[in-house]
Specification:
It contains 3 helices and 9 strands. With 167 residues, it is mainly beta. It folds into 2 domains: 3-74 and 134-156, Chitinase A, domain 3; 79-127, Thrombin, subunit H, CATH 2.40.10. Strands 1, 2, 3, 4 and 9 form a 5-stranded antiparallel beta sheet that branches. A 4-stranded antiparallel beta sheet has the order 5-8-7-6, with no helix packed on it. A hairpin with a 3-residue loop joins β7 and β8 (123-127). It starts with 13 loop residues before the first strand and ends in an 11-residue tail after the last helix. The structure holds zinc ion. Zinc ion (ZN) is lined by residues 156, 158, 160, 165, 167. The site of zinc ion (ZN) has 5 residues, from loops.
Amino acid sequence: MSAETQPTQVADKLVVTIDYTLTVEGEEVDSSREEGPLTYLHGYGNIISGLEKALVGLKVGDQKQVTVTPEDGYGEYDEEAVMEVPRDQFPAEIPLEPGIELHITDEDNETMHAIILEVGDDIVVLDTNHPLADQELNFDVTIVSLRTATKEELAHGHVHGEGGHHH
Ligand code: ZN
């Protein structure tokens, strides 16, 4: 077995840590300043595809402005993702008012984000499009660090945290 070399450029199967700011229509909507740098396993679709592609080959310390179209970001706005749900399917404690954001868990245990558009006597109209659907995303990214992934991380397809990870 050959000695492991320290990776120098973003590539598949590397664990990449980035600082980023996401701006949409001139407004900052997300930034690692609040939650700290983002660490992800490159090449496994853990971040949106348009951003992942744009970071390939960057070195630690490099900064890049990346513009991501909706197709490579959070998708086009889908009319079919607007749905009517019978009002009696909502637990009584949920306030049903337009503009309220909900997180819904479906049969497959996938969590969906939804916004209430309308509340009728019998039905509630939900929009399950991603809030950033149809938007051009502008990322300002700095590569903070790179490391090789562990075998377990590659098998799982995601990064494991410092404090151990169970599943
Ligand atoms: Zn895992």
